[in-house]
Amino acid sequence: MKLNIPASELEWIFADFKEQRLLAVGPAVASARVLRNNLTHDFGPSNAEKVVRAAPLLIPMMERFLNCTNDVLAYLRANFANVS
Q1: The predicted structure's pLDDT at residue 19
Q2: 5 and 64 in contact (C-beta within 8 Å)?
Q3: Whole-structure pTM over 0.85, yes or no?
Q4: What confidence tier does 29 reach under pLDDT thresholds 50, 70, 90?
Q5: Quick one: pLDDT band at residue 21, thresholds 50, 70, 90?
Q6: Is the separation of the CB atoms in 22 and 15 below 8 Å?
Q7: N or C: where does the chain have the smaller number of CB atoms within 10 Å of the terminal CB?
Q8: Measured distance CA(15)–CA(32) in Å, rounded
Q9: What are phi and psi of 55, to 5 degrees?
Q10: Residue ranges of the domains in the chain?
């Protein structure tokens, strides 16, 4: 789709449990997806703290991804208009 966001940032947002090896070493301990899953399935202070520590890294990435919404919608309309 040629989004205006690096693939490495998409990995930080969407990598599942088995894809954590794709992430570069950084201040976050896991991708946003894994942090969200851990927090919702095992809510507690340690998982909440991991989200808080990762927020400065992940929030700007998520904002850049959300800024691509119009590009994603245009791609979906162009390529999947016949899918119902």
Answers
A1: 87
A2: yes
A3: no
A4: confident
A5: confident
A6: yes
A7: C
A8: 8
A9: -55, -45
A10: 7-18+30-75
